[in-house]
Amino acid sequence: MRLHRSLDGGPFPAVDLKDFGKELAFSVDEYRSRMRCAHAAMDAAGLDALLVMNPANVFYLSGFQTFAVDGAACLVAPRHGEPAIAMDPPEFGSAWISAWIKDLRGYPPGSDRPAYAASMLAEHGLDRGRIGVDDANWGQTPAFRAGLEQSLPEAEFVSAGELFIELRRLKSPAEIEHIRWAALATRAATEAAVETAAVGVTDGEIAGAAYAAMAHAGGEYPCLAPIVTSGRRSGILHSTHKRRTIERGDTVLLEIGACHQRYNAPQMRTLTVGPPADDVRRAADACIAALNAVLDALRPGAVARDVAEIGWRALTAAGDDLVFHGNFGYGIGAGFPPNWADATGFIQRDHSTVLQPGMVFHHPIAVRRLGQFGVAFSETSVITKDGCEVLTHGERVLVEC
To answer: Is pTM, for the whole model, over 0.90?
Structure first.
């Protein structure tokens, strides 16, 4: 094998994959089915190809995954012809074992990457094509887009972000099975966190126990490390452990989402070290009631804003001077750090999403009295033909340690 050939921008050297084996997250048939759906979406949008750089979208169509998500891997999926992926040459090993696509290429050292991506399009005769780009995030920067347009001045580049949202909105049975496996690791991690919480331990020790249990249960590196906030810090949104020692009377907020084949199953729980204060108990009861009400309202044909209104009515019992983000559910699926959300749906007062079987949501019902305490309960669910199925595990109760 002459590995130096991978540095010249051409295809990687031919290797007998039978000697090494593949680690595909899905069958080739499933990937081919996704590509056919992408072709149909291209037809509907009048596109000749997709140029994909969001790591979750690259993974969705090709299987390619790496934790080096800033490496600007680029998938070219023409309407006619086979797809190809360009990447940093050191990523060949990851692509080799995880992607079903055969055409794998390394960016030449010091190369102009937009120009190289443009050359891949030109190989398919798309110098004047209409190209959809998933410019929502990551390597698809304005400078990259400008480089594409400069290299192919007669081509038309248009946003294809909404196309990917539609492609990924409904999860297949195989995707849901990965989420089920992730939920088992989430349960193990949550149980370990609760068992560890006690006066005198640190918030980091609780997070460490959760992370160890998650890994022992088969979880991969998650999109977000286990979130543990305690005492007054539990009242600060998007904060996590920071070397704080647990004291009697503390409220401890947990948010844990294990990952299996890049699919996540997040869950939030709250515990108190010693008896809870009355306002903490009242907030917890209201959060649990709102979560139960939302889950009961989930069914095909339901409108997101109507479900959110049901949640709001139950949450008003939490008390005064509390902060809530207004989100009773957001779509999740395949993800890479730092986010497991996939923007495929929202259950909020200002969203008119109509629920369909196969949509998967995380329902983060969390209220905080800023700088005093925070209480949160959540589940991951999938819409079924009859209602919804909760994929995560465990009682919805305020645990006293």
So the answer is: yes
